[in-house]
Design goal:
There is one protein chain. Helices cover about 50% and strands about 0% of the residues. It has about 80 residues and is mainly α.
């Protein structure tokens, strides 16, 4: 499905204007509903990517506050993995 979106010059299926006739729609809905049921973060079709990343980052920081993934200084985080 990513190949389909890339071939159309869009970032993901949510940006496609042909969702009504898409042959991937059943698979996408099954994947999304399964991911939500498993507690994963799932982008809705009309959501702004940047806002979601900010919201999800905040949520994940609250869940795992000691994670290196959220180091304020990204250079320090990159250096941490090299030691």
């Amino acid at each position: 499905m990513k190949a389909c979106a890339s071939g159309r010059g869009i970032g993901d299926c949510g940006e496609c204007g042909e969702t009504a006739g898409c042959h991937h729609s059943d698979v996408l809905e099954k994947m999304r509903s399964g991911a939500v049921a498993a507690g994963l973060l799932v982008k809705t079709k009309s959501a702004d990517r940047q806002k979601l990343v900010e919201q999800w980052t905040t949520r994940l920081q609250q869940t795992w506050p000691c994670s290196v993934l959220f180091a304020a200084d990204r250079k320090a985080a990159n250096e941490w993995g090299k030691t």
